[in-house]
Amino acid sequence: xxxxxxPDIHITxxxxxxxxxxxxxxxxxxxxxxxxxQSPGQGLQLLLKYFSGDTLVQGIKGFEAEFKxxxxxxxxxxxxxxxxxxxxxxxxxxxxxxGNKLTFGTGxxxxxxx
Amino acid sequence: xxxxxQSPKYLFRKEGQxxxxxxxxxxxxxAMYWYRQDPGQGLRLIYYSQIVNxxxxxxxxxxxxxxxxxxxxxxxxxxxxxxNPTAFYLCASSxxxxxxEQFFGPGTRLTVL
Lengths: 114, 113
Fold this sequence. Notes:
The structure holds 2 protein chains of 2 kinds.
Chain A: E1 3-5, E2 10-14, E3 19-21, E4 24-26, E5 32-38, E6 44-50, E7 56-58, E8 64-68, E9 73-78, E10 87-94, E11 103-104, E12 108-113
Parallel strand pairs in A: 2-12
Antiparallel strand pairs in A: 1-4, 3-9, 5-6, 5-10, 7-8, 8-9, 10-11, 10-12
Chain B: E1 4-7, E2 10-13, E3 19-25, E4 31-37, E5 43-51, E6 54-57, E7 64-66, E8 76-78, E9 87-94, E10 103-104, E11 108-112
Parallel strand pairs in B: 2-11
Antiparallel strand pairs in B: 1-3, 3-8, 4-5, 4-9, 5-6, 7-8, 9-10, 9-11
């Protein structure tokens, strides 16, 4: 079965600093990859997705992610973090033949220091 | 505006009572999903439905039941058999496409006293 690992449970960065959130998956074929963001007590909002083509994908709110097949990774990046980016971030993976089911990582809680 | 609605936002029940959580979507999506979210555990799939009148168990279906009588609606019942029902419940929907993106509702916080 496929799995998703987000190794960092909590990350703290200063406002204006760069950010990288890590995501690794285990699955043999090319996966469908997603990053979602969740504010406290709210649903999940899609930041970006990858399913084919250019391995560097741009998303909303200035986020980007890069699919690296050799490392089974899909890390999320932002060059300059804003205080409003404080939230929980989830990586998710789907695969061909799995219907539209997704497997989610356990999340990374981002704190932004002013 | 198209979207997914979940009601109520907060729900309190006494132990031993069944409770039904509502999920409605007007996105014309075929597939719908229920997830449970607990701190530090991410989202775990309870049930999903890819078409009307059909649904499948997810990873943690024990103590839960669902129905899918209409395309727009996918209610989740938390039964008294669920040993630890207090959690945040999220409903999502998607359409068959190459992108597999799921759209989420705002969630229901269930507290069993």
